């Protein structure tokens, strides 16, 4: 009898997992047929999720069905080929497949003893990413949720190192009464750096902002005097224009004056794998710490942020925690390099994506998406609209006339559902942003999206 119950239970689980895989497979393969942004009627159905916390259990098969019926239509088709919002990569096929297996493994990647495979794969991918970016092989790092957390982690390591130089232990004595540290950022600093700095105890008003040029690049000739108590944040890939700060000149100055240079390279650093775009990343390898995302250009599924630090000791000293029950072996322990302790095994899908593409595949993904960005820019210009940035990588900023018309076009494009682009304000001028970041985008996707955007823009200008 007990044996019978066990078999029934197993076959129910089997059926549930098969059904889940079937639903997910259908969603993944049918993504190109969906509207990119959900329709209003699909958003309205989300109300059906709101119910009091149920007393009684629900059948997992039925709730899965409900998730698909109400949830799937209310997703945004960011994994399809016509999503150009923010900087959002799709999901590389190997990455999605690996994450299904990793979900079944459900490993806690905090410590090697909890998951030897997670710890090992992290070491491998961190080395590969250092190679891809041309960074020193002895950098240390960790896998975090996103570039914001990667920026935060690196800045906390910088804070630790600079205060230690001044004879102050931030771990023991905290930040109140600590020797002052100067923080220098460009005027086009990404908001995530400001958030990370404030989490690390550096208020916005205490920062020195350096003027930028018309593309948003920090002007090296406007740098203030730096010192060995300065953290200087530079950027590889502006979220709007895609521009890169002049790292060769800036890093040379910072090195002479003893400052710590941190690079926010959320997506731009990946350009280093392409011989065609590598000149843009020149000099960034001279920095002290780097933050990036694998969920952007490399198309690893969420969430996949990466932090790398040249002074591994500073990172570990800032991130280590000790307790009698926590083992520390002789080898790298994932949780001693990141703010998080327990977390999922992000290295699995990162390994799968990078292994499936290799640097050649990653290079063609980068070059293809940059070429599509050029095609968008050419299409906009030919139709008489103003492209506001030099399209150096995968980012395009376009104005359709007055602020009101540009905003009207953005809204109408989003409602149309063929593709999705967001808005921004670039150096005082409202613009639509096109970020081509997905492996799934084809030439046909670009042409269809361009045709749709131009039709809407002409109608809005009529
Ligand atoms: C330059 C830059 N830094 C940081 C971020 C923040 O990334 P995340 O949302 O992964 O924290 C972005 C996002 O687009 C970015 O472009």
Provide structural commentary.
The chain is α/β, with parallel strands linked by helices and 462 residues long. Helix content is 42%, strand content 12%. The chain has a seven-stranded mixed sheet, with helices on both faces. Helix 1 runs parallel beside helix 3 (60-71). The longest helix is centred in the last third of the chain and has 36 residues, at 347-382. It is globular, with a radius of gyration of 24 Å. The N and C termini lie far apart (76 Å). 47% of the residues are buried. The mean pLDDT is 96. The structure holds pyridoxal-5'-phosphate. Residues 86-87, 146-148, 190, 192, 235, 237, 239, 264, 266-267, 293, 305 line the site of pyridoxal-5'-phosphate. Pyridoxal-5'-phosphate is lined by residues 86-87, 146-148, 190, 192, 235, 237, 239, 264, 266-267, 293, 305.
Low-confidence stretches: none
What is the strand tally?
A: 11
Mean pLDDT: 96
Percent helix range: 40-55%
Biggest β-sheet: strands ordered side by side in the sheet: 1-7-6-5-4-2-3
Radius of gyration: 24 Å
- How many helices in DSSP terms? 13
Outline = globular
Biggest sheet features: 7 strands, mixed
Give, in order, the helices and strands. Answer: HHHHHEHHEHEEHEEEHHEEHEEH
Kindly estimate the percentage of residues that lie in beta strands according to DSSP. 5-15%
Kindly, what is the distance between the CA atoms of the first and last residues, rounded to a whole number of angstroms?
76 Å
Bound small molecules, deduplicated: pyridoxal-5'-phosphate
Helix/strand class: alpha/beta
């Amino acid at each position: 009898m007990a044996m019978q119950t066990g078999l029934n239970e197993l076959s129910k689980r089997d059926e549930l997992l098969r059904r889940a895989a079937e639903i997910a497979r259908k969603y993944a393969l049918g993504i190109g047929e969906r509207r990119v942004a959900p329709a209003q009627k699909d958003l309205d159905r989300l109300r059906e999720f709101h119910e009091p916390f149920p007393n009684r259990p629900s059948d997992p098969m039925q709730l899965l069905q409900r998730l698909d019926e109400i949830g799937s239509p209310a997703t945004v088709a960011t994994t399809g080929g016509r999503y150009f919002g923010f900087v959002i990569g799709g999901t590389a096929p190997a990455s999605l497949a690996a994450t299904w297996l990793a979900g079944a493994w459900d490993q806690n990647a905090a410590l090697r003893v909890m998951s030897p495979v997670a710890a090992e794969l992290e070491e491998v991918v961190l080395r590969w990413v250092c190679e891809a970016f041309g960074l020193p092989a002895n950098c240390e790092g960790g896998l975090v949720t996103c570039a914001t957390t990667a920026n935060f982690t690196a800045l906390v390591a910088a804070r630790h190192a600079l205060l230690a130089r001044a004879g102050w232990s931030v771990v023991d004595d905290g930040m109140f009464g600590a020797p002052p540290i100067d923080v220098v950022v460009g005027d086009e600093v990404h908001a995530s750096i400001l958030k990370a700095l404030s989490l690390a105890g550096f208020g916005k008003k205490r920062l020195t902002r350096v003027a930028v040029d018309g593309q948003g690049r920090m002007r090296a000739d406007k740098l203030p005097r730096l010192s060995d108590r300065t953290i200087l944040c530079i950027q590889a890939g502006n979220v709007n224009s895609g521009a890169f700060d002049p790292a060769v000149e800036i890093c040379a100055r910072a090195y002479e004056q003893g400052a710590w240079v941190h690079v926010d390279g959320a997506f731009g650093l990946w350009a280093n794998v392409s011989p065609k775009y590598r000149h843009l990343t020149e000099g960034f390898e001279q920095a002290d710490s780097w933050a990036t995302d694998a969920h952007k250009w490399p198309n690893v599924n969420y969430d996949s942020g990466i932090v790398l630090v040249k002074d591994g000791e500073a990172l570990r000293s800032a991130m280590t925690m000790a307790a009698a029950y926590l083992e520390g072996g002789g080898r790298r322990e994932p949780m001693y390099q990141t703010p998080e302790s327990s977390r999922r095994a992000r290295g699995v899908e990162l390994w799968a994506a990078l292994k499936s593409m290799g640097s050649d595949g990653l290079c063609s993904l980068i070059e293809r998406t940059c070429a599509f960005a050029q095609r968008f820019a050419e299409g906009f210009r030919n139709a008489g609209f103003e492209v506001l940035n030099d399209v150096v990588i995968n980012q395009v900023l376009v104005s359709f006339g007055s602020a009101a018309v540009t905003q009207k076009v953005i809204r109408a494009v989003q409602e149309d559902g063929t593709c999705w682009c967001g808005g921004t304000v670039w150096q005082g001028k409202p613009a639509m942003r096109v970020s081509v970041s997905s492996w799934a985008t084809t030439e046909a996707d670009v042409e269809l999206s361009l045709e749709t955007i131009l039709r809407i823009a002409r109608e809005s200008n009529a």
